[in-house]
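Exercise 4. Each item below gives a protein and its sequence. For each, produce the structure-token representation.

Item: Nuclease SbcCD subunit C (Knoellia locipacati).
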Amino acid sequence: MRIHRLRATAFGPFPDEVTVDFDTLTAAGLFLIHGPTGAGKTSLLDAICFALFADVPGVRDRRGIVSDHAAPTATPSVELEFTCGTRRFSLYRSPAHTRPKKRGTGTIENPATVTLSEHDGAGWRVVSNRNDEAAEVIHDVLGMGKEQFAKVAMLPQGEFAAFLTAKDDDRRALLEKLFDISRFADVEDWLVAQRRESEAAVAAVRSGVDTDLARLGDVVAAVGLVDDPADSGSEHLDDRLAASSDSPEAVRARLDAIGTQLDAQLSEAMVALDVAVSAEALASVRAEHARTAVALRARATSARSTLAALDAVEDDIATVRRTHDDARRASGVRGHLDTVQRATTEAAQHDSRLDLARQQAAALVPAARNAEEDADADDPADLVARLRAHDDTVRELVRLEAQSAARAERVRTHQLAVDHAGTVLETADADRAAAEQRALEVEALLADTLEAAAALEGAAAAAQAARQRLRLAERVVASEVTVGALAEAAATARTAAQDARDHEQDLVARRLGQMAAELAEGLVDGDSCPVCGSHEHPAPAIDADRVTPVELDRARARHATLVLQHQQAESEAASAAALLADGLETLEVASVREVDLGAERAAASEAESRHTDIRRRAGQQEAHERALAGLRAEVARIDASVTEARRDLARATTVAEQELAAEAADQAAVRELEAVHDLCPCTPTTTGGAARGGGTGAGDDDAAEGSPPVSSSARELSRRHDRLVTAATAWLAALEHRETAHTRLAESTAVAVEATTEAGFDSLESATAALVPQAALERLGDRVRDHDRARAAALAVLDDAAVREAESAPEPDLEAVTLAAQQARSALLEAQSAQTRVAAAASSFSTVRTSLVAGLDAAGPTLERHHRVKDLADTFAGGGVNNTLRMRLTSYVLAARLDKVAQLANERLRIMGDGRYRLEHSDRLAARGARSGLGLRVLDQWTGVTRETSTLSGGEAFMASLALALGLADAVREEAGGFDLGTLFVDEGFGTLDDESLEQVISVLDSLREGGRAVGVVSHVGELRSRITSQLAVRKTASGSTVAVSAPGAESAA
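Answer:
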């Protein structure tokens, strides 16, 4: 992998975009990345790692990669262009970050984005925009993850210096991240799982044997067996069996003895059960015979008692028999009797209805006409026919009356229309004059509004100018206060700096005066004095109140700090004075010679008020224009309403005249119809038209002229006519129904007389008297039948041969035979329980015996396999008696990798250290039971002594850790399939080397350039700048860091 270009924006300490052209920087092969501490040298490596893996190496938090120096709207991003093999990629990443909202306040969260592109010869082609897909492609082309890449491509000397002297477990943690040992770890896990399975199998076998022994003890206890039948007080057999469970042969012998005893007990129990069954059967037969005899004798006694009771009620039963027979015969003609009853009731009802209908009709016929037509008073059919002949005349009179009422209402409506039109015409002129007057007033307001709109722009400019003058005045006053405060602060800082300088000079003077006492402290008797050369020192100088170098350094640092503070205060005071001068100059340009905040505020307030008033008046222009247009429309509407009112007046007058003419024609038609209706039976003949509310003479003339309405009695006449028609029709129907009902009564009476005679009754009344309700009839029948059945049953009992035999035999002793049967049953149950218990024990013993023997047979192979698996698993896990080095399998594999790393590291260490030191892998047993196998020691080939790596000096440790890092990188590349790393970084640690060692280290790094590889040294050591010409300088400022490339052939700096 070779890096071509890196571009980072708002990343780490870099607030702006920085670009590093690695093709130019790495042209010489070896290049230097330098800068002060904290400038951001390592942040460039973090940017490369973040672009590849979306994360930074080590313990740094990737949430802090967004630059704190960048603008809030800046988008943090990293773009890396690199080549792997023959493929060239461009990778752009932007981490998740917050930015201000474009509208309103607050922030919004931007998610992380990625774009992976590949150059296909013709141009860049986007491979993926998804994090997971991009990560998969990067892992495929690099062949390693973030941790491996950070250790192989970016050699962190601090971590490898710690690795050099770390404990075995700490080395294991790093090696596991760099080398794939998963298959060996799987073997360890598999053996642990096998150990757990074998432990479970052993536990299962032991549990099964324990369970079987417990079950065997239950069997032995259930039947009361003992090991030696002759010694009933000896130990139970299950305890003896448990004591010898390690001997399958002894277990089988004891099991055979128990089986023999169980077989003997089972035979004895079966014989006892047979005897008990026979005894119980005989006792049960005897008890059953005794119970049967007692029951038969009791039945005979009960039957005789029943016959005596039946004889006592025989007379009553005979009466019930007769009543039941009469009621049964009467129930056969119940239907005919019910029909006659219903027909009689119906005929009486129709008689009453006929009388009522005749009376109602007679009451509705006028009295005069009743007197004239007495001959037809009893003929309802003729009355109905005559009434129906006048139905159409009555309906027409009602229609004309309704029509006349409607026409009168229309006439009143048209008259109201005429009155309304007149009112509208009277008020229209006044409304029009008022509207025109209001229009003139609104036009005057509109003119004022237009004048205000013309003056609005000038008022706004004046208010703006007043506001600007007020802001300038406020700023000048604030600047004067600030200048005074800053000037006072600068004076205070100057005084403090002068005091600190005086204190520092005083300490220097005292220090110079105390040099003799300090030299005297180093004098040793017999050694020469560094000043006079004498070997005797009779009176060395002494000073108790001595100034130490630490005090002097502290005073110098304080003086320097206070000088900086004084310079900063002077700078801030000068800046404030400049701002004050600018403000005063601006005020003078604005024609303000003196600053009077009160006057400026009053002027600004007055200008603002005038501008507000003019803007308010100008804003009413649209409202006035709408009001004027509305008033003009109102005048036009009034004119239109006057025209419409005149048309309505003419139209209403014409229609009213037409309606009055139609009303006169209707009155003539009414009079003709009333003359025809005088012949109807519902109209009295003696009163004529007067009965209808009409009249003659003057009244007729008035009707003709249309003053009174058509006769108002037409509706009453119609109702009287309809009521008489209804009453006459009901009278006719009642007469017909009465005749039909009397016919049905005569027919049903004849049929009923014939049926009752056939049933044996001499009249309808006697048959009716014999009737009883159906429920009572059934109760009478049930009583007779119950009496007969009880007598028959009692006689049948006394005639039974078994009953007669039981009565003739002696009475049995039921209590004695029952007690004997119960005793025999108890004995049978005890025998059955004993036999069942022994049989169950024998069955359980057979099952337990089979299971116990099988468990003991399987215990041996299971325990043997468990011991084998446990020993193997413990050995592979770094324990057990066979693993004397206490090395796990994975540690053994990593030890081989570490040995290879040490061999590769020694190739570089030999050159850097003049062949003096050699790293050796150590599998020496660690103390206090700790894991072993990943130790490192150093062999001093000049002395032949092997010692701990912690005894190396600072420079020696740096060279050893650098060699170890390079060796580890080579080993990881071999593990990854020979992956070629075209760009390599070595981070820090060169400050501990002397010039000769530094030259040797640089020669080793220079040798890494073979094959076109570029090596970057990250350091702030000044000596390296003169030795490495291609440089990338990182500079830091208060606003963030920048970078600059300096290399032969470089045209520009980034």
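Check: The longest helix spans residues 391-513.
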